[in-house]
Amino acid sequence: KELIYTESDLIVTPIIDNPKIMKQVPVRFDSKTLHIPAYSVEKLSSMKDVDWNNFLKRVCSLLDSSEKNTGAARSKLNLLYYLCTLVVYKEIASRLISSQLFPILIQQLRAASNWDIRANVARVIGLLALHTSELGEDVPVSEAITLLTELIRENFRNSKLKQCFLPALGELLYLIANKEEKGEHPRECWAVPSAAYTVLMRCLREG
Q: Kinase as a keyword (predicted)?
């Protein structure tokens, strides 16, 4: 075993926001234009359920807003930057991935006309997958994987967009594999469509 493996082979490094893969621009949000209080992680962790649910409702309604003007897009982006700074904490990530926020992120990934918003939604999804310690049975992971696969396939010649969507897809696949390896039985909503493997193999072949 000592000859076959080197120690570093057994260390799993993150796929998303990994500076060894790609240098990421640090995420900064503007608390003045956030439209919700910019609570710290400590504050959110100690919140009572009622306050947490109110906070979550406001986040979801801001993300779900159908306004199409530049100001609305800018405030959505700002909110996504804020979420990126929160979901790197295990406790917050675990609560958010099982909440109503995850389906809304999927819906934004599908419907947003602004590619910056889509790219940052994918980043939030990838960070959630990386940092969560729990994965509920009803989290629609398969739907997110299917959608990311479609986006990669549709934009296959656009390497910038592929670099936004592939890390999120990788983190979701790793999360499912990890849960199944720990003996948590495969769930219907965690099924990986064969198209995801096909697209990944194509990326490895042609990338």
A: yes
Counting Cβ atoms within 10 Å, is residue 47 exposed (0-12), middle (13-18) or buried (19+)? Answer: middle
> Does residue 145 belong to any structural domain of this protein?
yes
Q: What is the CATH number of the domain that holds 42?
A: 1.25.10
43: in domain: yes
What is the spatial distance between Cα 203 and Cα 80, in angstroms, rounded to a whole number? Answer: 27
Q: What DSSP assignment string belongs to 114-152?
A: -HHHHHHHHHHHHHHHHH-S---TT--HHHHHHHHHHHH
Q: State which residues form the domain around 137.
A: 27-206
What is the DSSP-derived secondary structure letter of residue 28?
-
Q: Give the span between the Cα atoms of 174 and 196, in whole angstroms.
A: 13
Q: What is the pLDDT of residues 74-118, one digit of tens each?
A: 999 999 999 999 999 999 999 999 999 999 999 999 998 899 999
Q: What is the pTM of this model?
A: 0.91
Instruction: With respect to residue 11, please indicate whether it lies within any of the assigned structural domains.
Output: no
